């Protein structure tokens, strides 16, 4: 019988890969807590309208990549392709839009997109992210970015990673910019790809994101939004950059970073690296002042980012080491009971401890070496009668008799 394999685009996380994955999530959880973020967990699947509203009907995710299905009750359900929309929906669903704003939210978990699997990208993938819900000030934008930078630094992946930022302006700025883009791309309409011709009618800013080589050559000469900013939008952008400098976050400006949906405004940013080939973005986000309203809530200015755990895990300079246990080894059947007492005393003292289920002294010592144990606690009838254990340092090769009551303290 052929052994079953994981579904294409998914994978098992075992051993070193799991330790890398876990380290990324735990580091982000720890650093974001220092900034006052609390962790939320939303359902893995949502009403499809959450993402249709949150990502826009013309986005590639909604049109091509979502795992959507009709459940037995006739409702359209979608496995979440991202989590920002779900967090905004949760804010509204739980009646939190009128109290204790801003809310600072951290999340971590699996997402699902039907796309071609490639380096660092899977159909089930994992993200960390933060959102500040209910803050209109440019300081919120800068603090969100600074938190992301501190997470990258704590992971040891900031070298070779660059923050690129842009502004999308306010509504007036975007309207003027949209008009300029429509005029520019209309003059090149016949040369645009089919997808970009559709976007020209519905969402011209998304043409700037096109991966088509012909489109990209045209985009290179397109207008930039900086030429169309209102005085208020320019001041907001200047304030974000000043705060980033104060936070000590290095950055460079990239006028081609955009977000296609109308509720995005002001700051857009990406942390990019050249260490992952073409898939260079490891963290991306921006300000979205209308998404909570799309979920049925009041206007709620917000800003946040998301990052792929798989990509960050690939950038780690080395995998976190597996914890090295202590092996508890009874010699003879009579020693098993006292050995279990020692085993549990070690665990209660916070020491990783294991006991082999069977085998003589030789075989149990061989297993201790295979699992990378740092020490062995050996108990035979003689040791039990004397109230001691033989404590063997498996790195140094030394051995000493230690009172049973002191074993946990010595190894803790």
From TrEMBL:
Superkingdom: Bacteria
Subunit structure: Homodimer.
GO cellular component: cytoplasm
Lineage per the UniProt record: Bacteria, Pseudomonadati, Pseudomonadota, Alphaproteobacteria, Acetobacterales
Protein name, per record: Histidine--tRNA ligase
EC number per UniProt: 6.1.1.21
Domain named Aminoacyl-transfer RNA synthetases class-II family profile: residues: 1-330
Gene3D superfamilies with a match to the protein in the record: Anticodon-binding domain, Bira Bifunctional Protein, Domain 2
Gene name of the record: hisS
GO MF annotation terms: ATP binding; histidine-tRNA ligase activity
Subcellular compartments: Cytoplasm
GO biological process: histidyl-tRNA aminoacylation
Keyword Translocase: no
Family: Belongs to the class-II aminoacyl-tRNA synthetase family.
Major place of residence: cytoplasm
Residues that bind L-histidine: 82-84, 113, 127, 131, 259, 263-264
Cytoplasm among keywords: yes
Family matches, as Pfam families: HGTP_anticodon (PF03129), tRNA-synt_His (PF13393)
Organism: Neoroseomonas alkaliterrae
């Amino acid at each position: 019988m052929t052994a079953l394999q994981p579904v294409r685009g998914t994978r098992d996380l075992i051993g070193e890969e799991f330790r890398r994955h876990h380290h990324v999530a735990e580091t982000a959880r720890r650093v974001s807590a220092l900034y006052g973020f609390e962790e939320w967990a939303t359902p893995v699947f949502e009403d499809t309208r959450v993402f249709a509203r949150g990502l826009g009907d013309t986005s590639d995710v909604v049109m091509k990549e979502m795992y959507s299905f009709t459940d037995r009750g006739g409702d359209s359900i979608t496995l979440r392709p991202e989590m920002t929309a779900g967090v905004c929906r949760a804010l509204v669903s739980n009646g939190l839009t009128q109290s204790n704003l801003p809310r600072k939210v951290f999340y971590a978990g699996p997402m699902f997109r039907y796309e071609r699997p490639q380096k660092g990208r899977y159909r089930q993938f994992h993200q960390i992210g933060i959102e500040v819900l209910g803050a209109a000030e440019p300081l919120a934008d800068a603090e969100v970015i600074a938190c992301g930078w501190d997470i990258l630094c704590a992971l040891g992946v900031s070298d070779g990673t660059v923050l690129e930022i842009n502004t999308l302006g306010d509504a007036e700025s975007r309207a003027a910019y949209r008009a300029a883009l429509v005029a520019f791309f209309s003059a090149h309409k016949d040369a645009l790809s089919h997808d970009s011709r559709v976007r020209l009618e519905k969402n011209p800013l998304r043409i700037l994101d096109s991966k088509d080589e012909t489109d990209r050559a045209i985009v290179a000469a397109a207008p930039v939004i900086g030429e169309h900013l209102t005085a208020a939008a320019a001041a907001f952008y200047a304030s974000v950059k000043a705060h980033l400098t104060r936070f000590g976050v290095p950055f460079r400006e990239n006028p081609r970073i955009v977000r296609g949906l109308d509720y995005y405004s002001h700051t857009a940013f990406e942390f990019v690296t050249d260490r992952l080939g073409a898939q260079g973005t490891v963290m991306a986000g921006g300000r979205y002042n209308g998404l909570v309203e799309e979920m049925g809530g009041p206007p709620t200015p917000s800003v946040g980012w998301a990052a792929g755990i798989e990509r960050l895990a690939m950038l780690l300079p080395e995998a976190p080491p597996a914890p090295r246990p202590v092996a508890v080894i009874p010699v003879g059947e009579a020693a098993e009971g006292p050995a279990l007492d020692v085993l549990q005393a070690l665990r209660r003292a916070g020491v990783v401890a294991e006991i082999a289920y069977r085998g003589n002294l030789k075989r149990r010592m061989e297993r201790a070496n295979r699992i990378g144990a740092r020490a062995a606690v050996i108990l035979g009838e003689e040791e039990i009668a004397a109230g001691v254990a033989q404590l063997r340092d498996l790195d140094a090769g030394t051995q000493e008799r230690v009172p049973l009551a002191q074993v946990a303290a010595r190894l803790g």
